[in-house]
Amino acid sequence: MLFNGLLNLSIIQMIFGLLFYQILGQSKSNRLGVLRRTHPIELTIESGAIRGEYLTIGANDFAVFKGIPYAAPPVGSLRFQKPEPPAKWRGVMNATQYSPMCAQRSRTKATDPSHLYRVHISEDCLYLNVFAPPQFTNDTYPVIVFIHGGAFQSGSSSDYPQDAILNNFVSRKIIFVSINYRLGPLGFLSTGDEILPGNFGLWDQILALQWVKLNAHVFGGDRNNIMLMGQGSGASSASILALSPRAEGLFNKILLMSGTAITPGAVRKTPVNATWNLDDRLHCRSFNSTELLDCFKKMLRDEILDAAIGSSTTIPDYEQFVPVVDGPGGVIPEPPEILATYRPKMPIMLGTTKDESSLRIC
């Protein structure tokens, strides 16, 4: 069993249900009944009060919170830096709308048939969403933290239809948390030294997990029963974090769908060439890592993303700006193959997802 009282078969059924909705882009009918919004709900987390909403589908009630900040906006002096905890706020923060997607190449109808490309894109994107059973009892529930896929270049926590999450997870008394994290060069740019060590997107995921560990009880979650789950590069992320000393103790088990830490192209050992190639394309003419960072911080988001397209590798399906081996004290101190030989083991379920790339086939 992965959770108390929850069979592996049930987990597999839930996963395929979620992916079925994901592939279609939306649900044609709601298995549990007609969705009704009932009333607001306010809770107080570590940073302040938040206002979500109770939803009713048939005879089932759900507590839904969207767009909760788990980190300070990674802009200005925090651009290309490790994330920092969010500032505390006064009053009640509205948590009923998804946050913007993290900066990525623009989506089009051709590349995103589900029409999710209309979602706003911003560098201020480090938010998460919590879907929970209502707290009518003193029960505690297992928690799933889900990391979206997208080759570390695209994707968002809002890509996954709400009704699929509620139907397949929350209705079975599981709290489901989905997160955003920085992508592409803004999340994984590295000069291989202390100036730009890279892996900012992974540090985002770690801070999100710390947030869940700190706040899970507010939503009725069991902080000692957290599963980290991902698909594609999200699965690679979960696998990397399971091997990382920096994420130790933040979750108890992992579920990997079509990705691991040793997936070809998931982790690079030499990021420097790609970074300096991008420096040339942006006409920074930097002489060292400090000058490069100063120049990149002055660039517009789209200037960096457009230049990164031109600096991509000639090897198909391999991206330049992905997790890197960042040495002692980093998220990936050694290659994953080596970490796997001595890092603590934890329960794992892994497999592939049916028709995963069907939307990419022309």
Report strand %.
15-25%
Helix content class: 10-25%
Helix-and-strand structural type: alpha/beta
Question: What ranges have pLDDT less than 50 throughout 5 or more consecutive residues?
Answer: 1-14, 16-29, 113-117
Q: Count helical runs.
A: 9
Helix-strand pattern, N to C? HEEEEEEEEHEHHEHEHHHHE
Summarize model confidence as the mean pLDDT.
85
Describe the global form.
globular
Main beta sheet, described? 10 strands, mixed
Q: What is the number of E strands? A: 12
How far apart, in Å, are the first and last alpha carbons?
40 Å
CA radius of gyration: 20 Å
Features of the shown structure:
single chain; 362 residues; alpha/beta; 10-stranded mixed beta sheet; two-stranded parallel ribbon
Please, could you describe this protein's structure?
It holds the Pfam family COesterase. Belongs to the type-B carboxylesterase/lipase family. Keywords: Membrane, Signal, Transmembrane, Transmembrane helix. Residues 42-359 form the Carboxylesterase type B domain. InterPro entries: AB_hydrolase_fold, CarbesteraseB, Carboxylesterase_B_CS, Neuroligin/BSAL. The strands form 2 sheets. Strands 1, 2, 3, 4, 7, 8, 9, 10, 11 and 12 form a 10-stranded mixed beta sheet that branches. The chain is globular, with a radius of gyration of 20 Å. The protein has helices at 8-24, 162-168, 184-188, 200-215, 233-243, 272-281, 289-298, 301-310, 336-339, and strands at 35-45, 48-57, 60-69, 92-94, 101-102, 121-122, 127-132, 141-147, 175-179, 221-231, 253-257, 348-351. The model is unreliable at 1-14, 16-29 and 113-117 (pLDDT under 50). It has 9 helices and 12 strands. The chain has 362 residues and is of the alpha/beta class.
